[in-house]
Prior knowledge:
Layout (H helix, E strand, L loop, with lengths): L17 E6 L3 H11 L3 E6 L6 H10 L5 H10 L4 H8 L14 H13 L2 H11 L5 E4 L5 E7 L4 E3 L1 H6 L4 E8 L10 H9 L2 E4 L4 H9 L2 H9 L3 E5 L3 E3 L8 H12 L6 E5 L16 E4 L4 H6 L3 E5 L2 E2 L6 E2 L1 H22 L1
Parallel strand pairs: 1-2, 1-7, 2-3, 7-8, 8-10, 10-12
Antiparallel strand pairs: 4-5, 4-6, 9-11, 13-14
Helix pairs in contact: 1-3, 1-13, 5-6, 8-10
Subcellular location: Cytoplasm
GO molecular function: LPPG:FO 2-phospho-L-lactate transferase activity
Family: Belongs to the heat shock protein 70 family. Belongs to the gluconeogenesis factor family.
Amino acid sequence: MTYSDSKVIRVSRSRRPKIVVIGGGTGLPVVLSALKEQDAQITAIVTVSDDGGSSGTIRNFINVVPPGDIRNVLVSLSDIPQEQKDVFQYRFDSSDSFFSGHAIGNLIIAALNEMHGNIFDAVQSLSKMMRVDGHVFPASNEPLTLNAEFIDGTIQAGEKEITNKDKRIKRVWVTDTNSNKEPEAVSPVLEAIMQADAVVLGPGSLFTSILPNLMIPNLGEAVRKTKAEVIYICNIMTQLGETDHFSDCDHVDVINRHLGGHYVNTTLVNGAKIDMSKFNPKDYDAYIEPVKNDYVGLRKQGCRVITDDFIDQRSGLVFHDGEKVANEIINRAFTAMSTRKTTE
């Protein structure tokens, strides 16, 4: 296990690094925006098993892949003017009983899904309209249902229902919402993973944003087989109903167990103390405490550890510092490129 003080090792930059980021939730756009500034070739693979909020409502009414995470990722990589982004992100307030809670972007994605007949082509069409720098791929072309088995042996389906159980999760898997077919990712998703220099997992909810993607059989197999550096961005805070009292090692262990081996090559972990006096629990009702560091346990997982002050708490909220995280990802990607070149 090695440690870094965030000094970026510069290697020959013969081409833009190919970086695939897999996940969902609010942390993903922060990292994608920072990577965009680093001039990387970005592919975002976004979870499609969300069943809460506006995404869940739209999904239930018109049977479409939940659009919320896709919407936020599109905005983070878009080169359209900010005013247009604001319109796309606008959410109707509660005074409008029909549109209450819905973001305009979610409705546009749902409409394009109907026009194209599938979510993958819909997102590619919208990516062109929004001048997206990179690629945004739904993890699956079909809506997926997240399933969980808890430590006590009980089983629950549905992301929202799983977290509401507030039980320790043993394992998760996904099923096709509309059929008995095995969930699968489309070929561009698999090709992006296999051709990547770095495959980044997170940041995001461990069991409901990251693992649902890896549990798509052919997508998980691609992550196992890729020669890319597999990087996990560990969460800063534990999450109620998912990772209560987890250490950074616990997070990595769960990913590796679901993949069936030690596939995480590098883990980015926060080593700085969080100023809890700035922390407003009302803003994070699902979060409990800072994730504890367990370097001994991480060593046993066989992964490189890069630890730094990865916190951006300037607003009083606890986010990853996108610039610092992106620097480390770029560093590892170029190192992987250099290593691959010397071995070929």
